[in-house]
Design a protein that fits this description.
Elements (H helix, E strand, L loop, with lengths): L1 H40 L25 H5 L15 H10 L3 E9 L2 E8 L6 E4 L3 E2 L2 E7 L2 E6 L2 E6 L8 E3 L1
Antiparallel strand pairs: 1-2, 2-3, 4-5, 5-6, 6-7, 7-8
């Protein structure tokens, strides 16, 4: 009985070996046919150049395309838009003080960070509480705004929920 099993195992292994060899021969033949047909299509051994596919450039839609995001700001605890009518105050103060927009406030793990963008550039600046910027010191960071101090002067920047705007008060 042991001999019969062993003979069957050897016969099965031989059959599998023959089957694998046959499949390898068919694959090799197909590859050779593909190379021959590709060579026949090119003129006298010219190399075939494959162009890389071009990916379309993705551009973000404008912020106005997301009215729900503008109406219900992500980083507001109430998710409600805060309306403020302090534009004249802002113009008067920014001409004397910092000419920046407060774009974000981060309060986490005891660290307090303000993200501001100078109005003349689009590059954001990250300031830690106590750090100086253009002669002003970031003295306080709160969830809704920050306070900059320069000697006895103080300037408050409130985090406005409208894109591209901040409210400044003395």
């Amino acid at each position: 009985m042991f001999r019969v099993r062993r003979m069957r195992t050897i016969a099965m292994a031989a059959a599998l070996l023959l089957l694998c060899g046959g499949l390898a021969a068919v694959i090799a033949d197909r590859l050779q046919d593909g190379r021959r047909s590709a060579g026949a299509e090119t003129a006298a051994g010219d190399a075939v150049e494959l162009a890389a596919p071009t990916m379309p450039q993705y551009e973000l839609p404008p912020l106005e395309a997301y009215p729900e995001l503008l109406d219900r700001p992500l980083f507001s605890s109430t998710r409600r838009l805060v309306e403020a009518d302090d534009a004249p105050v802002q113009a008067a103060v920014t001409s004397q003080g910092l000419d920046v927009v407060l774009t974000g406030v981060i309060i986490a793990d005891g660290n307090k960070v303000a993200l501001i963008v100078p109005r003349n550039t689009a590059k954001p600046v990250r300031l830690i509480e106590g750090q100086g910027y253009q002669g002003w010191t970031l003295s306080e960071v709160q969830s809704e705004g920050v306070i900059f101090r320069q000697g006895t002067r103080a300037q408050i920047l409130e985090l406005d929920r409208k894109p591209g705007a901040a409210i400044a008060k003395n």
